[in-house]
Amino acid sequence: MSAATMTAPLAKPGADEGRIGLRANLRHIGALVRRNALQIKQDPESMFDALLMPIIFILLFVYVFGGAMFGPGNQQKYVQYLVPGMMAMMGMNIAMAVGTGVNEDFRKGVMDRFRTMPIARSSVLIAKIVVEVGRMLIATAILLGMGFLLGLKIEGGIPAFLGAIALSTVFGAALMWIFILLGLALKTPQAVQGMAMLVLMPLQFGSSIFAPTKTMPGWLKGFTSVNPLSNLADAARALIKGQGAVAHPTLITLAWAVAITAITMPLAVRKFRNKT
Predict the structure, then answer these.
(1) What are 68-82's pLDDT values in tens digits?
(2) pTM of the prediction?
């Protein structure tokens, strides 16, 4: 990607984002998206998590826990329960990779070069989000493909099914800002990954993704009720099954997505601008 491609008219190195017009911002984001996509093309191994993780996870959970959850031979019922919940998990796991990627780019000096260019600082991070959302959609498509092979049925109609995918995508994109902020704040990719696991594990397993919450102790039920992953899993499950409450968990999920983005996006952009 050449400097000429990234240069906005009348822009100067270190210019404030407000001085760069919307059209120039979009052009910068597009150029950076192409750059990040070319990186994936040159390093196809970076797609292994998006391609293989959904297959491994769904097979393990269905055949390890499916019989225990719904009785021997009833794994198909667990598929119907599990797959919508795992759509929420895919976004979170892909989001974790964004933080380590940003951290590695800083360690290699790539981000320092971008910061010397006359581009909006947010465009660098937004381009990362766009490419990772694409990876998340690929992972979700593979997850759903495996779900269909194992017996997943769309009972709520195609529009509701697409709504479940869109809701998972919006929330996953919001989570990426948290992990970008971690990638900018912590010193090494290992530190980012370790901190991310401390966030991921309680949220994923303290939710309704893998099992109904009715058998959980009261204190854990209280946590799952406010856990945004539980609301996302419940909303996706209701949309795909065509039954159950949809409006409440959907609104709660969207509220979480807006709040997370509103808080962490400005912090991440500021940290990116000032990071030494």
Answers:
(1) 777 776 778 889 999
(2) 0.83
CA–CA separation, 178 vs 199, rounded Å? 10
Give backbone dihedrals phi and psi of 151, rounded to 5 degrees, phi first: 115, 10
pLDDT (tens digit, 9 = 90+) per residue, 138-175? 999 999 999 999 989 999 899 999 999 999 999 999 99
Residues 6+ apart with CB under 8 A from 201: none
Using DSSP, state whether 225 is helix, strand or coil. Answer: helix
The DSSP H or E segment spanning 271 is helix 247-274
Maximal CA-CA distance, the chain: 68
Other beta carbons less than 10 A from residue 12's beta carbon:
10
Q: Is 244 left (phi over 0), alpha (psi -120 to 50) or beta?
A: left
> Over the Cα atoms of the chain, what is R_g?
20
Residue type, 73: G
Please state, as a whole number, how many other Cβ atoms lie within 10 Å of the Cβ of residue 164: 27
Residue among 201, 164, 192 nearest 104 (CA): 192
| Cα–Cα distances in angstroms (integers) from residue 272 to residues 8, 150, 185, in the given order | 20, 44, 9
Give the C-alpha distances (Å, rounded to integers) separating 205 from 102, 199, 208. 26, 11, 8
Residues 6+ apart with CB under 8 A from 193: 96, 99, 100
